[in-house]
Design a protein that fits this description.
9-stranded mixed β-sheet; 13 helices; 6-stranded antiparallel β-sheet; binds zinc ion; 3 domains; alpha+beta; 557 residues; globular
Length: 557
Amino acid sequence: MKNTLVLAVLFSFSFHAVPAGGFEDARPGEDFTRKDRTELLFSTKFQFTPENVPVVTVGVVEDEKEIAFLSEGPLVFMSEGEGGPSVRVGRGRTECIATMDDSRPAVIRYWPALERVPARELGPVREARNRWTQAGLSVNTFEQGSVFGFYGRILDNRRVVVVEDVSFEDRAAAQAHLDELAATHGIDTPELYEEVIRRPDGRVRVRCLGHEATMEFPGMVVVNPSAGKFIRIRNVAFHKLYNEGKREDRSYRGSIIFTADRNGRLAAVNSVDAETLLKGLVPSEIYNDAPMEALKAQAVVARGELFAKLGNRHTADPYMVCADVHCQAYRGMERENERTSLAVEETAGMMAFFKDELVDSVYSSSCGGHSESGANVWQGSNHEYLVGVPDAAGQVKAFARGVTEESVREFIMNPPKDSWCGKSRFGKSAFRWTRTLTDNEIVAGVKKITGTDIGQFKGFEVMGRGVSGRMTRLKVIGTQATVEIAPELRIRQALGSLKSSTFVWNRGNGSVTFTGAGFGHGVGMCQNGAIGMADAGRTYQQILGHYYSGSEVVKIY
Ligand SMILES: [Zn+2]
Ligand SMILES: [Zn+2]
């Protein structure tokens, strides 16, 4: 499907990071065609294809000095997007290099966020403000997210972010302050809120092979391939955390936008309609040879997850979602597969709803036998449908009398035999695992994540676990300092990127051996469990009803 930048045929409102002293009225989408287009890159206003499929922007490359790209046909460069002036370059294969000049980074202010509350009702927001004021903190609020409608269904993922009324220009200083607050007030999901004071800017320069002239575009340029052709970007870097230094060429459907990233370096953003994007996303997120009902469940959750995130992530970046596991892994069109594309087509426009609410359909690779509650992992995820459940037809015996250090050890060492992810033929190494780290590796990891040098490692103390056994807060004791780490993702990152925070440990001589269950945060759908359920004859609707309790699948476009 060709990605045309037609503006909202339906309607689209945005509340992009408006300080929420009071609620602003929703404004209908403005026509950005002739304005500063970089503003559009930072907004959550939707554009739609002529078929009324929303167009999404994905950050596919950033932090580069130059980006080489090509297409098997001419390329059209548009400084203001569709409808503005355009330059057509090349005939057959066209190869170009984009660079960035006179750039300046974004100015971002970091706020310690205490809590995120759905913005639909005023009551909970007021209560949250009062609670923190009574705890002795001076608070401020921001609003993020967006509200948009499709054929009478309103999708509203807006949240009010309650922050301590103190901001930082330096991210590390803000994080250190937030860590202290989290330890003092027992916050298991500390997160920073990023306020964009000034957007990044720069001049994009493009030089194409066989053409003398260098083209210059202030702020950004939209590049379209000719009909039926694609844009291929050279040397796209893999996720830095897991694949340092690894790169590959990737092709993308839709348009590519070159602009400045938050650091004033060159970024490439793929503007593509949601259904085409999903065909690229789904195969990166699940085994292509998984049973069809599991693939359909994956297509529905990937779609719901995409829409739930818009406006709530990357508020300081020139795109709505990133191409890494942080949002959803996306490696362009090469990964497309007949079976996963069919699963996307057969569920086109479908998402899970709980009552009238779009389900934030988060998922992870393996829950380990019990899923986790959203509230224990992220701010603002305390939804009824995201309460952790046993990943089995019955109960998890080890947790019958609650989650304790003893019951977690029992759960990990003697896994429940009837759990869906345990039965799955995929991901055995995710279900139960062991990993050994030296004391030095632990000290270095803790320093990297918290900025604190604890001296020599002395031990751990578990400060909290969720319903799946996942640790929510961990105390790391050292000879020089003791730190508390939360939430679960930072615990894993500090400990050599452990697969999950459902673990117990044994102290060795200068090392620690971790034994754990599951891979990922464990909230919402367990992907290996979905495969286990599909193998046992369950439909994708049944699978989704299991992981998002009380939800139903609705077609909204
Ligand atoms: Zn992301
Ligand atoms: Zn599971």
